[in-house]
Structure prediction request, 184 residues.
Amino acid sequence: MTRDKMIEQSKNAFVDALFCLLEHEQFEDITIKQLTLESGYSRRTYYRYFGSKTSILDEMLAKYLHSYQKYLLGLPMKPEDISRCVINFLWPHRQRVVILARNNLLVPLLTRHISKIADMLLDIRVPWRQKKADRQYYYAIIYSIGGFCVLLDTLFKDNLPENPQQISEALNGALKEIAFQMNK
Prediction:
């Protein structure tokens, strides 16, 4: 196994350990000792890659953002597809998102990285946005992400619908109604 694969494997073990522990304990109560025992890696390995428990979540989010960017690059995009794309991407990871939301970690995690998320989204070419560097797009995306973070947090704290289409249909219906009201 290559060194990079070994590093990735050990980081993933700490992410998995944290989520396993979060199923039964509060984030603040989880210790480094518990993380090392659950992951099967040493305290030294933990500190080699992470300075805090929060950095484990940051590592996980960075991987998800990279995957999400690749996912979006492979899709034809229309404005009405945005909510469906986000929900469809998150759906396979919903157990972790639920754990984050129910432990009040989702919104702080996303807001801590809101500028990275906005920059990543600005790198995705979409027909309705002409200029990448325009600050108004950046501010609009930041605003949208903030609202979407709170919405996701609410959805994933509650009992989730059985399929992602129910969520995206409800979101699109609400967005269309807002757009209609604004255009009156």
Remarks:
- The CA atoms of residues 12 and 60 lie 8 Å apart.
